[in-house]
Design a protein that fits this description.
Largest sheet: none
Shape: elongated
Radius of gyration: 39 Å
Structural class: mainly alpha
Strand content: under 5%
Distance between the termini: 100 Å
Order of helices and strands: HHHHHHH
């Protein structure tokens, strides 16, 4: 069984027009381009009008703190929480905090800007010579675990190109000193 056929009207054909002739003189060409550009500009103006007709809800002023993020290096100094009750671990932790606050350097115990090397930070934070020697011993042991070829704490410090590894080694040394109850 077949479906009945539906009569579909034939599409209307455009009536033949005279062939389009290209403008020949300069004035005719300029007039044609000007008309074309006027049409395009009118269409663009309409698009702008439509796009700007959408109402935007009123938004309050944006706070400066919401728009500006300050890098970590510029954040105000906050003293660390004393995590370690043992004296040598506390010295190592305070030395790390001093390096974060005053800056880390290499090639000098203290540079002209006040930045310190590992030894300089430990010496500034240790309450006694015995505490300094114990902190240096634990730190050197921690350094040997990761860098077996390093012979001294100043040699290790001067071989680094940034404080990230120095901070990590100080953290590990503080953990080790606390585990040993030093």
């Amino acid at each position: 069984m077949t479906a009945p056929s539906i009569a579909v009207p034939a599409p209307e054909r455009a009536t033949p027009t005279a062939p389009h002739r290209a403008p020949e003189s300069l004035n005719e060409r300029l007039t044609a381009v000007s008309t074309l550009m006027d049409d395009r500009l009118a269409l663009a103006a309409l698009a702008v009008a439509v796009n700007t007709a959408v109402s935007v809800p009123d938004v309050g002023p944006v706070g400066l703190a919401d728009a500006v993020c300050v890098p970590t290096a510029v954040q105000p100094y906050r003293p660390p929480v004393d995590l370690y009750p043992t004296p040598v671990a506390a010295v190592l932790q305070r030395a790390r905090a001093r390096l974060e606050r005053d800056g880390w350097c290499r090639g000098a115990t203290v540079d002209q800007d006040g930045a310190r090397c590992l030894y300089g930070a430990l010496r500034a934070e240790a309450a006694s010579t015995a505490e300094l020697h114990d902190a240096l011993a634990v730190l050197l042991e921690t350094i040997h675990r990761h860098f077996p070829d390093e012979e001294t704490v100043p040699g290790f410090n001067d071989g680094r190109y940034g404080p990230r590894v120095v901070f990590r080694v100080l953290d590990q040394a503080a953990d080790l000193a606390h585990a040993r109850d030093l």
